Each structure stands twice: as C-alpha cells, then as structure tokens.
Amino acid sequence: MVIENTNLAKGCLNGSVVLMTGGGGGIGYEASRALVWLGATVIIAEINREAGQHAADRINAELNTDRACFYPMDISKDEQVDALYTFAVDKFGGVDVLFHNATVTPVGAVDTLSIEDWDTSYGVNLRAPVMLTKRFLPQMMQRNRGTIVFVPSSGAAPYMGAYEVFKTAQVELCNTLAGELEDADIITYSIGPGLVKTATAVREIQKVAALMGLSPDEFYKMNESKMLDEETAGVGFAVSVAMAQRYRGQEIGSIQALIDAGVYRGEDNGDTAPQELTPEQFGIITTAARKLVQTFTEQYTGWFERNVFERQWVLRDFKKTTGMSADEMKGCMDTIKQQADTGDAAGIVKQAMLMKKLKQYYEHQCHLLQGYEKNPQKLRENSEIIQGWIKDVDTILSLLR
Prior knowledge:
Blueprint: E1 17-21, H1 26-37, E2 41-46, H2 49-63, E3 68-72, H3 78-92, E4 97-100, H4 115-143, E5 146-150, H5 161-180, E6 186-192, E7 195-196, H6 199-211, H7 216-222, E8 227-228, H8 230-242, E9 251-253, H9 254-260, H10 279-303, H11 308-322, H12 326-341, H13 345-349, H14 352-372, H15 376-398
Parallel strand pairs: 1-2, 1-4, 2-3, 4-5, 5-6, 6-9, 7-8
Helix pairs in contact: 1-8, 3-4, 4-5, 8-9, 10-12, 10-15, 14-15
C-alpha cells in the first residue's frame, strides 16, 4: 500500500470518524482504504449499493477490521442527508471529518448540454456539500472540533462547464466557511486530486477529447505531468486529513499532501547550501535578507493596524497564497534576521523555499494592484515598490542556483 510509504504512523487517526461521500470506487475508495489504515472509522456514503458494500467488505477483509461501514444514499436528497446524520450520531456519536468527495461529471458544450444535466450537477456538486455541511456543522461547533474537506476543480476545461462551474464554487464555499470558523477548532480546506484515470474519468475524457478533436491518448499525453493513479491520489486525500491543521483555509492538491507526507520529494527547493560562494556573495545575501525582513516586518505591522474586516481579509489572502500564516512567516523572518546579524549566510540559504513563497505573494500583490489602483501615477509607483521587493528575493535566489 502506498500509505505505508508515508511518514505518518499507522493508527494515527484512531478514534476519528470520517464520512466519505462517493467512497464506493475510484479515489474515494482508495482514500477510505488509506484512512482505515491510519486508524479511522470510515462511513462510505455511496449511491451504488453494490459498489458501496463491496468497497467496505474489501477494505475490512484486507485490513482485518470492521471500521469501513457502508451507508447507501443519494446525497442530493435532503431527507436522505437527514437520515444519514441520524445514523452517524446514533451509531458513532457523530463524525469528526466530513469529506465531500462524491461527484457527477456531465460533459458537453454549454449551449447543447441539457438543463437537466446542469440541475443534476448543481444538486450533487454544490448543493449537496452545502446541505451536508449545514447538517453536520452544528454538532462540530457544539463539540468545537472537526474537519470539513471540499474537493473542487478549477481547470475551466472546455466542454466541462456543467461540472467545473459548481466544483469551482466549492472553493469559495470553503473560503467563506474558513472565515466564519476562524475562531473555532474546526478546520476546512479544499483538495484537488489532479488528473486521475478513474473509470468515470476515462469515460468522460473520451467525450471531451472527441469534442476537442483529440484521441484520449493525445488528451492524456497533454496532461501526463499532472497525472496520478487512483491509489496515490486517494492516499493524498487521506494524509491531508491527518495533517489538516497545516492546510486550514487553503486550496491544495493531492501532490502537495503527498510531498508533505514524504511520499514525493517534490521539486528541488534549494535547501542545500552551494559549495562555492565568495565572501562578496555572502555579503550580498545577508544585505538582501535584511531588506527582505524589514519589508515584511513593516507589512506585518501595518496589517494589524487595519480594521477588523480588512485585517482578516489580508491575513486569509496571505495564508491562501503562501500556504502558511502571517505569524508563521513572521517567525521565520525573525530567524532570518538573526542569521543575517550573525553573518550566517548558509542558514539564510536554507530558507530558499520560504523566500519562494514570499516572492509568490508579492507577485500576487502586484497582480491585485492592477485591478484596484485607478490612479496611473500611483499604480506605477506602487508597482515599482512591489517589483523592488521581488528583486530583493531574486537577489538571494539567484545566488542559490
């Protein structure tokens, strides 16, 4: 099992109850399987009775347990959502993790796809996550603990509008919920699996590829760098639950969770110090690092002088863009300042990935600026300031290559 190759301990989710919608096959099945290995009890909510029961039976037989439980239901039906809630409370005392995995994938051009297909997609891909969240969130709030996971898609792919529109909306639903739950010990985040050759995906990709004038092989060839197999993508889902605290309020992908869990090494992040840096280059690095720390510290202080609404928006935007909180970044910046003050350029070099995150945020700020600054002179001046921040980061990164 791929899950055995992670840095997570078997049984680390002991005592947790996970509700996995659409867990009867594909990524949902593999995620359920990995979650049970991690120690969780998993309720597999599945519309296909045969597939759902078979999934639970296979997991229990393989892992010699009874912690995979099948519950037959159509998540688009309100009365069935209510019945599921009653079942979960009566049998398990409630759920700790609500994982919105179930989906339908209607394919076709916007003008030719039937309105019934649009309605079905809305019912499963957006309305159902809202209804399930509304039903299970109050108990999570009462206990002041829980995790809610959304599975969006934001590829804006041609001929998949009836799917993409509602799946993309899950991101904003997650963002809204994250803001409302900031002061609670309830975590919400969204995770995309990437392109995975599930049986359902293969059927729909054949239709999309034909509409695009491509063969299925040509379509997959175009996207092969982003592809995962079902088990690996499902393990990404499962390990994200075990590491949910670090993803709070974020939109991530299975690959990121797999990297964090030690399955993938990921891209070279420059954490290894170069072998040959001249004293002059070390001096350049420490000088640029001091400027970088001063810039961020001034920004950080300014954020907390804003009104509550602006401050919360900025801090959420920072975390969503960089994958870490402003407080975490401030702590890292304090470390970099200490390294610069003591001439520890080698220590600064090991902060390369952090600096890439900061550069990403400054580029994001520059992009936002173009949309709201209407005064041409101020736009030019402020753009130059942000570009200067980016240049300071690049000065350091250029010496690490």
